[in-house]
Batch of 2 targets.
Target 1
Amino acid sequence: MQRGRIVCRMKATKMLRSLYALLTLFLVCCATSLFVQTSYAQTPPAQTSAAPAAPEPQLSTQAAATQPATAAAGSFDQVVDRAIEREHFFMAQMKQLHPLVETYLQNLKKDKELDTPVPASDVYFLGRLDMSEGTDDRAFTSPTTAGLGKRMLSKLSNVYSMKFLPLGFAQMVVLDEDFQRRYYDFTFVRREFLGEVRCIVMDVAPKKDAGKGRFLGRVWIEDQDYNIVRFNGTYYPHPRASYYLHFDSWRANLRPGGVWLPSLIYSEESDLKYRLGQTLNYKAQTRLWGYNLKDLRRNSEFTEITVDAPQTVHDQSQKAQDASPIEAQRQWERQAELNVIDRLQQIGLLAPEGEIDKVLSTVVNNMMVTNNIDIQPEIHCRVLMTTPLESFTIGHTIVVSRGMIDVLPDEASLAMILTHELSHIVLGHHLNTKLAFNDRMFFPDERTFERMDFARDRGEEEAADKKAIELLNNSPYKDKLGTAGLFLKAVQARAPALKNLIRGHLGDSLLNGDATRMSSLMTSSPQFDPKKTDQVAALPLGGRVKIDPWNNQLELIKTKPVAITSAAEKMPFEVTPFFPFLTRLGSGASEKAAPVPEKTAAAPTGQ
Ligand SMILES: [Zn+2]
């Protein structure tokens, strides 16, 4: 594990006196300087009872039933009141939920040849959101660098490093933790559909003397239960020597009864001058998921989570005898595999089985059939929920990250990734069977990256590469490997700037030291040219896989390919803004409920 995976870690709770504690994995690679703080700095007056009218925070239809949807708000003022009331309910709900929060940020620098900003460095955070009070800081981290990282970070920030607080990005899920009418002016803008959801759009500005760090910007309120479903702006005014970033925060209707929860946040600054001659230029995506991890909610201490691997309990009735030594060895390995997979799924890092697994399995089957490979037990494919590009095997399960699936340009390049992993299985590269002992699974989830490591040594990597080329050359993909090689060239070109994206957390990166995986494919591929609009070597992040933040189910996004008009639109490996198509759960029956009367729409301003 001494691979320098984690450069820095910070203790969020220590940094801010706030209700929030974001459990962080802080991976830093910042080029510019200064402290950018994006969270509320004011001490909210009487914040403990900020939600007077909020019903008991249950995620059920009951909660919404206390506010009958049929009673439509009759005026703009009433819409404002209802929205504020719902926001208090929302805050109460969020205190009980502990979703995973992932932020991936790219610092940008103008590329002279392309005449467009491109990533120069990147930052990655992964943690669990905890908005209840008095929480420990529990991070997905590695012990080797934890203490060191913190020291290093504080030193750097004083001198020349710019520091993004992960907590700051997490806080963008909340408009104002003490959202009160008396602090704000509200101005009606228009009505507008976001996806299929009709919304009342209004501008919200803090009144004078409302305190620091109030929300300033635009909100979209759905016109049935009056939940805020999107807000776009910043916090204002900022305290001395720190800055609030701009953001566009989206919620999704995740439960019946009008429960809308944070799902996606885009943040960007292109011209924030924070020090003489220094400009902040970055873009960042934050994703939330894992709201419904029942086992974690039941046991909020995150300790001693039992993994009982029910699949390993085989029906022994047809074969009333002991396993042979070889069978016993296989079963032992299988048990380790199932333990790990259960655990990763339980803590929200591995998606439950779903449609994308089948797509991946189809490609693996193509490879096996054309190469006459028969492997028992059957090979399965699963998707890791996170963005960094990695893949690995756990026994006979091939795991590919969501970010990897997003950026791969075509099926042949997907086949390249999967075939490398298939080769590990074919060559009999084993999983460490220490994980077959169930007690090895009794560790708090934030230590996952420390306890689970599926990275291979160089020898096994090279052997798998060699085997994979052999298998690919005997497959339906053999004439289409040009794009796969091109993808690897793009990886190589962007790797120095994207150290936190092009790396492995649990498994292997596409880079093995200085070497690129499957590098022999690069020799036969076309010249990599970022300026050519018809050459797509790698896609932007977020274009293929859609997350259901409630149950972690993944689905493939079905969008028509968009013609690229300039090289700047190619954005390989880059983050982009979000524009999700909002829908209501169980929509149809709800359509006629609570339309906003025309006079509301015509109301010109708030007060
Ligand atoms: Zn490998």
Note: The mean pLDDT is 76.
Target 2
Amino acid sequence: MNKINVGLIGFGNVGSGVVKILRDKKQLLCKKSGVEINIKKICDKDFKSRRPVSVEKSLLTRSPKEVIEDPQIDIVVELIGGIHPAKEIIIQALEGGKNVVTANKALLAQEGKELFALARDRAKNIYFEASVGAGIPIIKALREGLVANKFHDIFGIVNGTSNFVLSEMSRNNCTFARAIAEAKTRGFAEKDPSLDINGIDSAHKLILLTYLCFGRLVSLNDIFVEGISHISISDINYAKELGLEIKLLAIAKIEKGELEVRVHPTLIPMDHLLASVDGIDNAFYVSSDLAGNLLFYGPGAGQLCAASAVVSDLMDITKDIKAGLFKSVLNNVPDISVKKLRKIDEIESRYYIRILAMDKPGVLARVSGILGKFGISIASVSQKERRKAQIVPIVMVSHEAKEKNMRQALVTIDRLNVVRPKSVAIRIEEV
Ligand SMILES: NC(=O)c1ccc[n+]([C@@H]2O[C@H](COP(=O)([O-])OP(=O)(O)OC[C@H]3O[C@@H](n4cnc5c(N)ncnc54)[C@H](OP(=O)(O)O)[C@@H]3O)[C@@H](O)[C@H]2O)c1
């Protein structure tokens, strides 16, 4: 076999980047794989908008069927995004005996169980390197480079938009609204950035990372998800005084045999490597038993970054086909040390707490009394201003406390007539 035919569905941002790389790097890729990767058909809804590469009209079609049903096509690349008809396209491609490459984290997070099972049944593969971290080869690293490792945890900054917003607030002392506006102006946020800001995009990626690290395909409902829209510039600044930096982290970790999967704004020590990951960059901090602690870092989006990962998947499948191999990337072995998923109420962490309370004698004692009643002990307290008989911020850092207790304590504190709701608690991770 000296030629592999590829059919592309979705000739948009990433799709046109893939075609450009396959054209520009044709000789190099051929030398490395010993096979020519040939684009046989390209499908899109329309071809009017400008692309960074020109292609012969004879390759173009508006019908996905023409790609999926072409018997000469070996690999179908789905780059349209969304759930439907992307799901149907992948199902039909697998049923037609084709391997699939996709960058569609939302689809795999929601429908992965069915799609991966079908791929296994048909002895085909779904490769999805671009779906997490774009060009950062984190999936290949977890799947292959670290194959003999047992993972303890993975902490990811996996959403460039929210990381840009938090970095902008932290570095330029601006409000959330201004940071979002800046992200839109610079093309780092969609018109409606809610999936990025509310943590759902990060949760989709966490589902795939958890699958690769722990062999568990959890669902979105299993993940605790909290976004960044309630984060204020004053909390960022108070946390800085404590030597802490805020990041939206996607976290999967094992504690006492229980797997925690959560996405939320997290305070981490300023001198930790993840704290300096700024702007639209992504990073993954992985702890493993053999290779130790590793950081993967780089741009988490962008046409050529994502297309680079798609081409890497195409090369992997090409080599497998050439070698006559069926090698499932999906045969993740569940980590048997994981007894169950831990609910958010049961997690334990240190907390940054900010309360707005009346500056008068006895108030602090009442607040500490409530925290004590819920078993929460305080490591440090500082009152940020002095304005007698007026509301002032009080910032505390707790020792390890149970989430459920912290929530109940804050609800009780917010009911005090000397406190102005709503008090803030941000989890601190000892990454
Ligand atoms: N952009 C990135 O940096 C990046 C990074 C990692 C992963 N990804 C993932 O890559 C995938 C593609 O993203 P993208 O940024 O390339 O999106 P995009 O620029 O919107 O490209 C998608 C293309 O598919 C076309 N399309 C939509 N539905 C179709 C259908 N039913 N049949 C044929 N064509 C259809 C769209 O046409 P219309 O425009 O006319 O709808 C558009 O040209 C998504 O799953 C995304 O999450 C993107």
Note: The radius of gyration is 24 Å.
